[in-house]
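Issue: copy button drops trailing tokens. Both records pasted manually instead:
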Amino acid sequence: MTKKKFIALTAFLSAFLIAVPFACNEKLAETKYTVNSDKISSPVKIAFLSDVHNTLYGRDMSELIGSVDRFMPDIVIFGGDLFDSQWEEANSQLLAKSLAKKYPCYYALGNHEFKYGAQDRVRNGAPSLGLNLLTLENNISDMDIKGNRIRIIGIDGTFFDDQYKSACDAVSDDVFSIFVYHYPEEFPEISKKGFDLTLSGHAHGGQWRFPPLLPNGVFSPGEGFFPKYTSGVYIENGSEMIVSRGLQRCPRDLVIPRIFNRPEVVFITLEP
């Protein structure tokens, strides 16, 4: 090997060894958004957790719980895939139970609760953890937070027509509506229904992100290759959607690492 080739190879390997840990960094990120609305008179703080998949975050889930506690939310919303392969998974149960002791917690199912046939056990067990489960039987929850009328609407993790119709019928001009729906790829249709804010997950940030070349990632389970709705804020037809990159990280369920795609907990402040 010539000296030039050796230097070039050494430089490449050095750059690779430096870049890989940075690119595959799966340390928890905290992402904050502000949503403004004429229906809001004073700030309301929401912690949004999606696609936990029973992933461990510190002893007794202390890292994730501590992150939420520092934000001091008024409500906590779980956006689906809280559980991975079975209802009895300890990490997700511990997380939900701990947060529900401090904050009102709302939970809409994702595809994984159905994928592993755990939906009935989830529905039956969620109240014991302190979770307010958003399903067809009880998919609308009204509350007053600091003088603001807030309506949380959710449906199960598959697109049931009867649940969707019930959710759309719950939209009101004088109440700020939050629609919790796991699948962001449905936003072009959902945005026409008048929801003030939609919260979604499922896309896992596109798994491999290469900004600025592929800022939305390489693949989403709902949109396939080169997806559009994977992370951040989207506005269509006067309606706003926030998509979480999710909290699953290797080796939970997938052995494919996240690249330039840190798992995140999302903090939202509703402002006048």
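Record 2 (pasted manually too):
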Amino acid sequence: METYERPASHSSNSEIASGNQQQGHPIEEWDEPYIECRDLFKIFKRAELEVVALRGIDMEVEQGEMVAIVGASGSGKSTLLNILSGLDRPSAGQVRVGHRDLLNISDQELVLYRRLEVGFVWQATARNLVPYLSARDNIELPQAIAGKDMSSRRARSLELLSILDMEDKADRKIHQLSGGEQQRLAIAVGMANSPPLLLADEPTGELDTQMASQVFQLLREINRIYHVTIVVVTHYQGVVEHMDRVLHIRDGRISSESRLEPGQHGTENALHEEYLVVDRVGRLQLPQEYVDKLHIQGFAKADIAGDQVNIKPASRSPKPGQGQRSDTAESA
């Protein structure tokens, strides 16, 4: 079983960041969230049917954050990722990535955005890598498309292969690499043009638990070295240990957020905390297990007790017109 460790010969983070700036990849600092979604909707029309995939997403991701999005199949997480990548356009709402307004963007600007400002890692390696090219050539291909010269392409590919600890496999074809190596190479391809944003859709879906953990360790290493913002869609159970935050999406909305909170003795006994997300207009989603346990359906009542809000099922549902006097009663 292969393992991933950072090679001792790596340059320091500051040295690599400085090198990126010299190659024309300055790290731009942001005073506002790098990703901002406001009341974001996506509606798919199929024949006579309309499917609402996103139902008013509110989300912010800071520059340099590592965020995972988790949820059941059909919850809207991959749709959200496709919108952030520029592969799909939203139906309504607001979505901004860096300087780009992805709701109102021309086709030409969208091409430049996908080419230079966002990297994407698919679950299936066949969508990430060209099988008849070597590992090094796969990393250099997106740079060539972006118009980089040969020396810059070669320097960047060797730098990324060094971080992967795959310098000795630079000339190997894809079929000569293990599954874990292929997915790590896919991350390097996504980072080839030094994008400020890296997106990954189920990058560990075809890997075992040990290899999945190593891929997330590599993503964290990439995040620390290049200060790249990373958003991952995943079903991996242990993802909270590798991320700054985990967003839970249900029925097209962000329902809750998880993170590791330091315990009394630091990170060794960190606690997994989950918080319900209240959006800008006060909407929240109760966990499904709470709804099932309390048999909440249709109506509920809420009241404030000190600094707490109590929610309980309504003892009976109000009837239409209940509590309103009839015209006859008023006239009497």
